[in-house]
Every structure is written in structure tokens, then in C-alpha cells.
Write a sequence for this structure.
């Protein structure tokens, strides 16, 4: 990060909430690193942290805590857990427990898989011909299906959308979209393009100057273990 | 599909494509003002002059 000019700060502590506080402190220090592990009197530090700087305490909660005389992190740490649960909710009590060094929010070690995949572009020039729009939609489909294949996903449905420019003077604004479900979840380019063109055919109206088109693949699920009674020999061959 | 992907990976994007995606893509996004691709395009490699 040294040569990028991006300021970096590191906070180390027993829980996520505490490390956010450590990071908050680190930002103002020259070294940019703060370690809260092994510090005896954490209360002295927490006292200086405003309640609205605590991770998980937003605008509404700040207002609520102010009304009840809680102004800093130390006060929140030392307040009774049952009181928080009763007057707010379990999430707020988790924040308080985290301040005490009891980890309640687990680390997310796995990145969750994407649920949808969008490819959409504005055109370099306005498009009026159906064929050109078809080409664009087909290209976006190829792009999107390649992307989901690289992540070993299959899509359950596809949405195609087109629109004219909302800023143009002549002509009326038109925008429409169409969703089609695949009979079997797929990541096959040819099938996806074919289905997209069917959808496009339904929403295309001649005479508009289209400015943008896009496709969305939705209902993405893992492609392995995706056994289907109807997947034919032909489909298996296409996969190879 | 796998063979298409591996070919495109090896020989560059859109080496294999569908004809329905068009050849002369007039509608393609304008990129007159895009930044240089310093790391992946030979034509936009920076030139070093030694004096």
C-alpha cells in the first residue's frame, strides 16, 4: 500500500467491534497500527470513543442511547445486558458483549457466491435496427454466461431489458424488460442467447432510438450436483 | 462450452463467438477517453526515452 497513496490503518482486538474501535484509534496515529490485545485498562480508551463511532450503532441507536445517558463506548460496555435486550434488540446487546471482549459476530472466512450476474452497456451510437439490438444482447449474453461458467454456476432465469435515452428531446421515452425461466438451469451460451433473443423479440418496438440494453442472469446456483431427469445426452455433450 | 472458454482464454477474448453477436459492432460502447491499459496491451506500453 506504500506506493499507492491509499491510507491504511490496522486495528487488532479480540472481537470485531473492538477491532473496529482499534482501527478508529489507529487512523489518528502516526504508525497506523493499534493493538488492543493485552491492554489492561481498555476502559480508558473506550471512554474516549463516542457512542456513534461504535460499529453497529447508527443514527437511531445514537439518539436512543443519548436519551438514556449513554454517550461513550465505556458506558455501553458496562450497562446491563438485560436492559439493552429489553429496550432495544439482540443485535445491540451483541455489540455491548463484543465491547466486553466476548465474540458474538463470527468471521466470514468464505466469500458467498453471487446470486445474479448483470451485463449491460450504453451504446456508442443510438440503435434503431432490431438486428443491431440482437447483436448487442447476444454479446452481453456471451459475456455473462462465460462469467458464470468460470464460477461454476448455472442460471435459472434471464431478464432482458432495453431503453431509450431518458434525456433525449425528440421521441418518447421507452423502457421495458422481459424475464424468461429456463426449463433447466443452464450456463450454456447458445441456450442463453436463444432465450434472450426470444425475450428481446417480445419487448422490441420499432421506431425507437435505443440507448441501452442489458441482461441479468438470476437464480444462480452451483452447477455441480445439478442432476436433472430431463437433461439429455445432447446437453451433456455440449458441456464438454 | 469448456473448449470455447479455454480457446478464448488462450487466444484472447472473442476468438470463438456466436455469429448472432455480430461482427461489425457499430453499437459498441465509445471508449475514446479510456485510460491506457499499461499492463496488458503492447500498444499502450509507456515509452522510455534515454537522453
Amino acid at each position: 500500500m506504500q506506493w499507492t497513496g491509499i491510507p491504511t490503518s490496522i486495528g487488532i482486538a479480540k472481537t470485531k467491534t473492538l477491532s473496529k474501535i482499534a482501527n478508529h484509534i489507529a487512523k489518528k496515529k502516526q504508525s497506523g497500527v493499534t493493538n488492543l490485545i493485552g491492554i489492561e485498562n481498555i476502559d480508558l480508551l473506550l471512554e474516549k470513543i463516542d457512542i456513534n463511532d461504535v460499529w453497529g450503532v447508527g443514527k437511531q441507536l445514537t439518539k436512543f442511547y443519548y436519551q438514556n445517558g449513554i454517550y461513550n463506548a465505556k458506558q455501553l460496555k458496562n450497562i446491563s445486558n438485560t436492559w439493552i435486550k429489553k429496550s432495544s434488540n439482540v443485535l445491540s446487546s451483541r455489540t455491548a458483549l463484543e465491547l466486553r471482549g466476548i465474540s458474538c459476530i463470527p468471521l466470514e472466512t468464505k466469500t458467498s457466491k453471487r446470486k445474479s450476474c448483470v451485463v449491460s452497456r450504453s451504446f456508442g451510437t443510438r440503435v434503431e435496427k432490431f438486428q443491431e439490438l440482437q447483436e448487442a444482447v447476444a454479446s452481453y449474453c456471451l459475456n455473462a454466461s462465460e462469467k458464470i461458467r468460470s464460477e461454476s454456476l448455472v442460471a435459472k432465469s434471464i431478464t432482458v431489458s432495453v431503453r431509450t435515452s431518458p434525456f433525449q428531446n425528440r421521441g418518447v421515452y421507452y423502457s421495458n424488460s422481459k424475464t424468461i425461466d429456463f426449463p433447466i438451469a443452464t450456463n450454456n451460451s447458445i441456450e442463453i442467447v436463444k432465450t434472450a433473443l426470444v425475450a428481446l423479440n417480445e419487448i422490441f418496438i420499432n421506431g425507437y432510438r435505443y440507448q441501452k440494453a442489458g441482461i441479468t442472469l438470476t437464480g444462480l446456483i452451483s452447477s455441480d450436483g445439478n442432476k436433472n431427469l430431463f437433461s439429455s445426452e445432447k446437453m451433456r455433450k455440449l458441456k464438454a | 462450452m469448456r473448449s470455447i472458454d479455454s480457446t478464448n482464454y488462450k487466444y484472447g477474448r472473442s476468438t470463438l463467438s456466436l455469429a448472432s453477436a455480430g461482427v461489425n459492432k457499430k453499437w459498441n460502447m465509445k471508449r475514446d477517453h479510456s485510460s491506457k491499459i499499461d499492463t496488458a496491451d503492447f500498444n499502450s506500453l509507456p515509452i522510455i526515452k534515454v537522453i
Notes: The longest helix of chain A spans residues 130-150. Chain A touches chain B at residues 121-125, 127, 132-136, 138-139, 142, 146, 149-150, 187-190, 193, 197, 238-240 (CB under 8 Å). Strands of chain A lie at 10-12, 33-35, 116-127, 153-164, 175-186, 210-218, 221-222. The mean pLDDT of chain A is 87.
